[in-house]
Amino acid sequence: APPVVAVVGRPNVGKSTLVNRLIGRRAAVVQDTPGVTRDRVSYDALWNGRQFVVVDTGGWAPDAKGMAAQIAEQAELAISAADAVVFVVDTNVGILDHDEAVVRVLRRSKKPVLLVANKVDDQRAEAEAAAMWNLGLGEPHPVSALTGRGSGDLLDAILDIL
Length: 162
Ligand code: GDP
Ligand code: MG
Known about the structure:
This protein is of the alpha/beta class. It has a single domain, classed as Rossmann fold. 31% of the residues lie in helices and 22% in strands. It has helices spanning 15-23, 67-80, 97-108, 126-130, 151-161, and strands at 4-8, 41-47, 50-56, 84-90, 113-118, 140-142. Strands 2-3-1-4-5-6 form a six-stranded mixed beta sheet, with helices on both faces. Bound molecules: guanosine-5'-diphosphate and magnesium ion (MG). Residues 3-162 form the EngA-type G domain. GTP 1 binds at residues 9-16, 56-60, 118-121. Associates with the 50S ribosomal subunit. GTPase that plays an essential role in the late steps of ribosome biogenesis. This is GTPase Der.
């Protein structure tokens, strides 16, 4: 079976937009209202002749559990079923508590992780992306899921860790 890459991160960082970039079509649902992706959804991807599966995650139910706990739980489920993980942060907003909740899950897992600094729509945002080194998850990959900036390099990097 082809290897599986899970795309994780707190709501609204651009996971579904990035998934659409990675699979080269519009399939993952993107909305300005965070939390629209209710379950994990898998898509087939092909890059440089190599097949892999991309899993979009997100969403929460308004129940007793706190949002951070639900985000962490979602990430945990997706990571355990994946061969590699793409962790997405929003370069414009920076790191919030809900990002840290995912980072804690990532540290516990032994899976290879690629850090994506998303929403780097132009050259100016590159400096902010470099600040993501502070997460201790290795080199941040600056990407604009919206425009496609950096997505080819990211796909190359994903194939390198699979
Ligand atoms: P998710 O909740 O993490 O799946 O995030 P979505 O993919 O649904 O995107 C949330 C919002 O961020 C939407 O309004 C997207 O259009 C926007 N967005 C996603 N990627 C980018 C990007 O690279 N640049 C900018 N400026 N906006 C983005
Ligand atoms: Mg989504």
